[in-house]
Amino acid sequence: MQRRMWGIVSVVGMSAAVLITLGLAFRALPVQARPAQGNSGQQIRVMFQETATPVVSVTPTNTITPSRTKTQTTTASATVTVVPVCSLVTLDSARLIDTYLEIRVRNGNETAPVFITRAEVQWSKPAAFPGLYADEMRIVGRSRFWFGPDYNPPTTADTTDPNWNDDIPSYLLRRFDGGPTITTVRVRFSNGPTMLSDYMTLGDFSGTRLYFSTTWGGLTFNPANDCMIEITTPATGTPTPSPTPITYTPTPSPTANCTNFSVHDLTFETNGVVSFSLTNNDTTPVHITGFHINWNTYYRIRPYITPLDFVSVGEKGAFDPTSVVVWDGNATVSPFEAASGSPDWRTNPVILPGTTTKIWFDFDGTAGPIDLYLGYNAYDFNDSWFTLSGDCDPQLPDQPTVAPTSTVTITLTPSRTLPQTPTTSAIPTFTPSIMLTPSKTSTPSPTFTPTRTITPTLPPSWTPFPATLTLAASLTPSVTPVLSCADYELEFAGWFPNGIVGFFLHVHGSIPASVSGFHLNWAHDPSPQPLIRAFTRGGAPGSWANFPFWAGWDTESPTTASSTGGEGDWNWFISTYLDANETHYLWFDFHGTELYLNDLGYTAEDFAGSSVTLNTQCVVVLGQHPEPTFTPSPTFTPSKTPPPSQTPVPTETRTPTRTRTPTATRTPSPTVIPSATRTDIPNYTLIPGCISYGESSTIICGAQ
Length: 704
Description:
- It contains two helices and 36 strands.
- The protein is mostly beta strands.
């Protein structure tokens, strides 16, 4: 008898062998599929038919353990590099905004960036601003990739320009991303109007071209393959002819009033910079077309500043990138004049109406303010002025000169000779108001004359000492320190900004040191020459707490200087005093860089063999570490001290004792005398037992 069974089996890769293992005999039957629910795969309705066939017992077989299958190695597939298409790199727009020419570049490539490799900026100078110059180029929101100044149009810059920044390895400063994306690049112009659009149009920049590389990084300008965009002159409509031509009468330019310009506020800055303030209170902009600078070089105890390196105009400082360099040369003689058109003149800076600007004069020879380091004052720059457009020459008002302090000379005048006449003794006069007059004179009783006079006698063996004895001083042994050159040590300290290298000078002993010379090795390529200053006495490099002991202009290594003679001795200021048992700094200042010397490739070994001379006799070599030695001083043996003198003791001979006679008692009767005014003479010493009577200044001492 056969029975049919219906069931639902979820078929997920099950084979017939699996079904047999379950003990089910089956045969192919019609199946009906229906859509699966969720993620359970397909469910199939299967009809099983049971047969009368006895169940076959399964004989276990050996289980085969699978061996480890080697993992398939992934094979790297080639990455498809998308090359930008130049036709998708286009000019979106251009405009003038503030002091910038702004160019918007569209990169229509979806994922591929392009990199700017060259800029050809066409521009012209407005008549009112002949000192206008191209200052920098940058993508908005990023640092500049090129900086100037460029004073003469057109401005061309590319990857070969030393002021061009490739920004390796990110190239972010020059990258114009795809997307498509619009990236804005700006060209800044300085020393001109605050709004370029007031004096220029976009047509003044017609023909400006930007080039972009399609290779990653774009390190080389390739005119054959680089993409290019260009600013063309905006189209202008065809003007309609007017029946009557319009005649334009130019507006006369206002004439500058020279009294509206002033020079004031002279200040001293670090790195030998002297600044002036120039104010334009007029209604028209003016340009600086020249200057006359005077710095005092006469009757100076300390060296004068030299040379004048450059002159700049700006608000933030002489070395600030936003400052305009007006003149750049090397002036060594005072006074000095320069004017527009001279070989070292760069540009005519503009001073806008109602503004005050700073003019910076940078002098070499010191890293600190010249008033503190070289003793300069504001009056040392009297007779300095500037030349402005419009024939105005505003001058710094003369600063008051400090009057010299007169030296008091003591003249000895002979004193008046007093006559050799008796004078009243300078003793305070006391006139007693009551004089005691004795009422009875006492008569002394007879005096007994001793029968024998006591005569001091000396023992025969005693020899008296001289009346005056000079005793020899007793010397106490003491230890006097002895100079030992091993007590000093010179050690490399490190690098500091503005080309300063430092050394430690250890004074281990109890004897102070005095720097009297040095020998400095500093040869290197590239060299930050010249060496301009050496200083010490503590404090940070460049601070006023330091004291320069040498200043010069040495362009070759080694530099040798001494307070006692030799090369460079004329630049020696003073032999600096260094306290004992302390560590001091020695700084050497190089002029040719504002960086750390190790950024130029310097190492401490470049200064090997350098030395410092102390106390004119100890040469302390860099890096040597001698053991301090202490030499005991000679011990003084005290001289023989003579014994104290002895006073002879007299031999006393007894004599009879005198009989004491009673003395009558005096009963003084008071006599009233008018009171006298007491006169005190200050600063006189009273003589005990002495009195003065009346106005005669009669002095009686020991009166009864």
